What does this fold into?
Amino acid sequence: MRHDAPSLPTHLLDRLRQVRLLALDVDGVLTDGRLYFQADGDEIKAFHTLDGHGIKLVQGAGIEVALITGRDSPMVSRRAAALGISHLHQGISRKLPVLQHLCARLEIELGQVAYCGDDMPDLAAIHQAGVGISVPGAPGYIRRHADWVTERAGGHGAVREICDVLLQAQGQWDTVLDTYLNDQA
It folds into this structure.
């Protein structure tokens, strides 16, 4: 069974083939953007398991993953650790300089980055990344600057959609699918 890359413009698929780093905002991208607080002040976040498995799949294909978020949350630290994400940057108001520094450390260009965000602090990173991505719940002025807006909402499989498209664009989808079809995962 063959599953080809989605019907994205050819120039965008060409750029997706070059991606070596998937950088993500957290609130509004990996979560639905809502903040939940318990009576004692502890914060609760909900993460979609499909997103987490997608992250594991792209990591297995050799794509680095980074989280760059404006908030500082123990829940995000736990989720990053559970997914094996070592590039975790919290409490970041200016995300592009962090992304540029990370690119230098990884010895890659910004053109080799796919960045997904949903709000003003993400705008420069969306604009400068090789593939700037946003989600349907982002304000229109953010979505207009993105190369691609996912069909799935943040916290509801948007990151999995990105991961699947990356694997398809890079010609790795059939290998991933065969691994699971043959129960070798």
About this structure: Helices lie at 10-17, 49-60, 74-83, 95-106, 123-128, 140-143, 158-169, 173-181. The longest helix spans residues 49-60.
